[in-house]
Amino acid sequence: MLKGISIYPKDLNNRKKVSGVRRQSSGQPLCGVPEHPENGTVPPNCTPFPDQLQFTTEYEKGPDTVSSCPRDSSSSSTSPSEGPTPVSPASGVQLGTLCLSVDYNFVKKALVVTIEEARGLPVVDETTQSSDPYVKMTILPERKHKIKTRVLRKTLDPVFDETFSFYGIPYSQLQELVLHFLVLSFDRYSRDDVIGEVTVPLAGLDPATSKVRLTQQILKRNIQKCVSRGELLVSVSYQPVAHRLTVVVLKAQHLPKMDIIGLSDPYVKVNLFLGRRRVAKRKTHMKKCTQNPVFNELFSFEIRAESLREVSLELLLVNFDRTTKNEVVGSILLGQLSPSPSGVEHWREVLENPRRQITKWHCLGEY
Fold first, then answer.
1. pLDDT digits over 284-309, tens only?
2. What are the C-alpha distances in Å from 326 to residues 12, 49, 93, 96, 296?
3. pTM, two decimal places
């Protein structure tokens, strides 16, 4: 068991690296790319787009409201075995519970959070009929403190028993903070699966006298537009004859302040997924000291037309940090598997308008 881990304000979020298949691409700066979709019709001598590409608009929506189980603010814990596994009201799927405790160290001015265990998690890996769960946590609204537990293999009832200390948090500010837990299942060959989330407002809790133990229902992840993360302008087109998917990262705006002088050093990572497998990755140049970077960089990927309906484009806006690990500010996903309506709609327009640049602004969401 890992205990007594002390986390000073830094980002310890690590993303696993998955090797991708090389594709022909170019990362050359592009000048004069229009920031709005072109108007016009496809020339009559162009090859019609394949009819077999059927596009659906089904995507997962998060719950409109986030509810929680009754809390016990005393020092006694609530046993998850006292009743049936709670059901997420949004999806009707059992996602299990997360047990944790909150304490405060007045001597060190540190918030102490222990992620104890999870119970009744859903099966993610159909082959083993199990999951490889771990938990990522951050403190809202500033998101300066980020941690994650170790991965526990092949279990639906993981016992983490890991304690994290967050220094530099005055006791007077506790009532303004919210603990956000994201429960995931590790996947060695593709993106990790999100099982659900737990949100714990510290308002009303008083860990001053004794440790507060909580058992919270894991809810389906609530996908919302994050106003504080900024926006990204992206242009996408597909050339059926050349079997080429072109992605142009144009610019971003209203990015959050990421350093002590109130600026950011952003760049964008572009990941191409075929189904659940990442097959290619690219990244733009880094722009120094700006919250409104202009990239104007083009990337191309070789994709057969019959594979387009399985393709997803993930764009991560990352802040470069010379002293600590680079931090993902936000992300967008384009494709029919996108959790947001804007990501689904953008991809639909790309498929319905071959040879045409489709340009749209997207709000950056949580990664």
1. 999 988 889 999 999 999 999 888 88
2. 9, 41, 35, 32, 22
3. 0.46
